[in-house]
Amino acid sequence: MKRIGILTGGGDAPGLNAVIRAAVKTALNIYQCEVYGIKNGYDGFLDENGVMPLGRKEVRGILPRGGTILGTANRGNPYARKVIRDGKEVVIDVSDEIVKGIQKLELDALLVLGGDGTLRIAHELAQKGVPCIGVPKTIDNDIGGTEITFGFDTALNIATEALDRLHTTAESHHRVMVLELMGRDAGFITLQAGISGGADVILIPEIPFKFENILKRIHQRVERGSQFSIIAVSEGAKPDGGSQVFSRQGDEVYVPRLGGVGQMVAEYIEKQGFESRVTVLGHIQRGGTPTSFDRSLATRYGAAAVRLAAQGKFDCMVALRCGEITDIPLEEAIAIPKRVNLHSDAVITARNIGISFGDD
Fold first, then answer.
1. What gap in Å lies between CA 148 and CA 138, rounded to an integer?
2. Residues whose CB falls within 8 Å of the CB of residue 211, separated by 6 or more in sequence, listed in order
3. CA 109 to CA 97: how far, in whole Å?
4. Rounded CA gap, 176 and 266, in Å?
5. From the candidates 12, 108, 116, 140, which is the catalytic residue?
6. Can you tell me the distance from the alpha carbon of 290 to that of 157, in angstroms, rounded to the nearest whole number?
7. Do domains 3-150+290-321 and 154-286+341-352 have the same CATH topology?
8. Alpha-carbon distance 250 to 348, whole Å?
9. I need a surface site. Which of 111, 158, 209, 337 has the fewest CB within 10 A?
10. CATH assignment of 154-286+341-352, given 3.40.50.460, 3.40.50.790, 3.30.1300.10, 2.40.30.170?
11. Taking CA 334 as the corner, what is the angle to CA 284 and CA 345, rounded to the nearest 5 degrees?
């Protein structure tokens, strides 16, 4: 192994720089091979200035930094790229150009740090002979085959802190506070933050809710002397018999953008006579310093990915199972998106302590 590349694709997440740092240090210390960073996801292979050498100097001091020093792109799908042809916007497949760019660099391995979309592209490129190794990154924690993705713990801590802060203002003003959190179609952030932050109602995509059941929980609290309530709602939550709320529809390039369900819930509660406010935490969950857990996990993933490359185990992804780093086929990782298990102890515990999911 003489030369490897690293790229970060999709939405940014705390811990990306920790993976990059660990991969570079492992490659240099153990295998004495060159490392190149690909800028802005797969797009870097199409840009003459899209590749940068990575050495000890480039990764010095980046362990606690959020974001990614390589840049990222969540619309960088080489199989569906928008370009202007004859004055018209068209969608084309540039995957063969990506493959040529990789071959030109003479990479022995390409480490792909990303979520389900980025890793799916990596798997498809692997079918074309690209020596890809995936590293599971997403705050949503929705990638199959691994117990946890890096970035999730930081987002969870930020969401929990937000709920803590909303508690004091909700109690002071006797209001219902609605906090809308990220997670797309997986409710892991909202579920765990809701439990940790003392939410009274948790709304997640896996459990359709009824507005009247939310109101029922609020009335129960009032009857017991609590004049305020906290509702944690995932951006992908939807009412029973209804649809998810989108702030932007998608197309063959742009994925639909979820957002607005928190406002919908708050407006309903307001109409029932309870003063309500909604807070959308948004990209605050993605930014800033990663937690110690995310730094450690990302570092372990980065070093393990380089070891996989040295072994020639391509079209695979590093994963955490039973507390240890292992590897699984990329095909397995992207086959079935991970969702909240409705029979898990976390859901059962939430119900035991009186948290409503809006379904009863």
1. 9
2. 239, 265, 268, 358
3. 17
4. 8
5. 140
6. 10
7. yes
8. 35
9. 337
10. 3.40.50.460
11. 65
User: 3-150+290-321 maps to which CATH number?
Assistant: 3.40.50.450
Helix (H) or strand (E) holding 166: helix 152-173
Q: Using 50 as the pLDDT threshold, list the residues of the chain that sit under it.
A: none
**Where do we find the tokens 């990575």?**
54
Whether the predicted model's global pTM rises above the 0.90 cut? yes
Length of the chain: 360
Residue 43 is given by DSSP the state G
Is 140 catalytic? The answer is: yes
Rounded CA-CA distance 346/149 in Å is 18
What six digits make up the tokens of 212? 């009247």
User: CA gyration radius for the chain?
Assistant: 22
User: How far apart are the C-alpha atoms of 270 and 134, rounded to whole Å?
Assistant: 46
Closest Cα partner for 360 from 215, 181, 188? 215
State the Cα torsion 255-140-135-53 to the nearest 10°: 70
Give per-residue pLDDT as tens, 18-54.
999 999 999 999 999 999 999 999 999 998 899 999 9
Measured in whole angstroms, the distance separating CA 344 from the mean position of its chain's CA atoms is: 21
| HSE-up of residue 258 (Cα within 13 Å, Cβ side) | 21
